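User: structure tokens for Glycosyl transferase family 1 domain-containing protein, please.
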Amino acid sequence: MRLSHFFTYYRTLGGVQSILKRHHAADAKRGHEPAFLFAFESDDFDEPNVTGLGFGGGHSISSMRTRFANHSSRFTDSVAICHNMWGLQFLADLMPAERRVGLLHSDWTGLRPFLETQRGLLDGVLCVSNALVELVSGCLPDLTKSNRVKLIPYPVDGLRAMPERAPLAGRTVVIGWVGRMQTEQKRVERLPGLAKALESAGIDFRFELLGDGPRQAWLKQQLPSDRTVFHGRKSGDEYWAVLRRWDFITSVSDYEGLPISMLEAFSAGVLPICPAIGSGGDEYSAQLGNEFVWEAFDFGQAAAKLKSILAKPESAI
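Assistant: Done. Predicted tokens:
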């Protein structure tokens, strides 16, 4: 099967990019013939099946269509996988694919009206969480009636062996966070408030942050230096070496689809302290118990729930 993947970026740090890199590494091994087209990447990839269109702020929709049309033949006789369905409103007619399938990874402000613009453009939608399935089903009733809105679980490699951890009682607990250090969506300016609530609750903790971004310098000034470790961007074995040392993972995002880093942390035996924002992460965390999900963004409640978890016998956690 020919698979034509289309998205915005490939080189940046993000959950969608990690899934696309997995497709790039594995699609051919599964007998598919993959190709990748990225709207905002420059066309300087070494891989022959990866192409950047070089879109930028100076491009109009008309000029984007003209450039995209030069690559329309890539979609012939293929299944087009349109990740987060970016640009389909003005590019779908230039994709002469056998099928156009949306793969919805993310939630964001304005997702509902965006989905309503996709009517008639897609043959089906795959969603990474049940919350997204429910939202898409309401916005695209024709696809729902024909049973073409489905859940697709994220693949997670995990570790070969579960790390051994010392009991939580009587020691510093390590709370991890993964992502791009920015205000939009990730809202990292909330992390100092969470740290203060944990300190006020008398919890002996250390924050460990994986990632970088424009708010990193500000965070280094605002978070307690004796309780915070900035690891920067890591990948591969270095990433897993950090993750496996954590006890808990948290988030302060406004919205998420299904945070892959949280699933990876779960696979390494890391427990969640998850805000209830209606993401797939909430759903997974709630399966462990209500104490692992806190009302967004009540940091006092987050601290109280963590304190109650730490008060339990080790066998009960």
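User: Anything notable?

Assistant: The domain at 2-151 is CATH 3.40.50.2000 (Rossmann fold).
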